Amino acid sequence: MTYSLSKKFLAATSALLLLSMSAVPAIAAADNSDAVSPLSAGNGLSEAAKQYLLRYPSRSGVDGKTAREDTAAVFIPFGATPEGGWPVVVWAHGTVGVANHCAPSLNPRSDRDKQYLNTWLSLGYAVVAPDYAGLGSSGLHHYLNARGEAWSVLDSVRAALKQFPLKNELILVGQSQGAHAAFASAGYQPHYAPELNVRATVLTGTPYFEKGTTAADILPPAGGKAPSGGDPKIPYIFYIYLSAADSNPQLNPADYFQDKALPLLKEASNLCITPLNDEVMNAGLNAANALKPGVDSLLNASVGAMLYPTLKIDHPVFIGIGSADINVPTA
């Protein structure tokens, strides 16, 4: 689903303000020039005067302890740097896949994302765009792991503030999986990165999970009818399984997926979302011919990592809902 947002809307949204609490900081970003390199021109934005790839130290939110290096793109607007530095939009991207090479910083951005991020740049905001752990960095990306997303996002901002002329005045913005990452970041920020000044959070296509979430909740029939052909939400189940199996290699895919789905499940660890979705649609995979009843036990075991740490956020939050969204349906 594509959309355009006006500068007037963005300017109004960016006027939201306030801050959060305190606690123990994570790994501090090192201030060294080796962490910064030019971003490939083909993966850049037209409204950016300068654009960089930033490598920064973080800590795995999956296990809560392992030191790692993650990546982010940083875009600086045209014009003179304002006093105190550029205010920052922290862009949390939607689903791209779970493989290293699916990272947004390694690929051209979609036309929708270009239009959206260019608008923020034209309004005088720098953009920090983290890839998330496992995308552009080592290991498998753990899909929809709330703490994993949040810690990687927050550490990207810490590092960017040290490397670039940015102001510690932040708006977290996310779409789809990115809305999950942005809201999780807003929830973890007071305790994980209390020094960051988050003024507002903006979310669209926001996933919500709770204990007891089932496959039927993730794959609701569109218009009350189960799809007879391919279902574009099947890749999400694949990515959730692969994330769980990365933590528990003893999982047997045949316990959760029918034979028809197993070849594509194997490919999903390397296929980014667009080619994987194409393959799913071409194969006609849907809940009836791809999943086994055991998939609900998989989701039950996985959903804890997807939950937001809190729904109480101490700054303004804007949530946009698409009435025709088939991936994150309205309540």
From TrEMBL:
Stretch forming the signal peptide: 1-28
GO terms for MF: triacylglycerol lipase activity
Top-level taxon in the UniProt lineage: Bacteria
One GO process term, biological-process aspect: lipid catabolic process
Classification via Gene3D superfamilies: alpha/beta hydrolase
InterPro entries attached to this UniProt entry: AB_hydrolase_fold (IPR029058), Lipase_secreted (IPR005152)
Pfam families xref list: LIP
Alphabetized UniProt keyword annotations: Signal
PANTHER family: LIPASE 5 (PTHR34853:SF1), PTHR34853
Protein name listed in UniProt: Lipase
Origin species: Klebsiella michiganensis
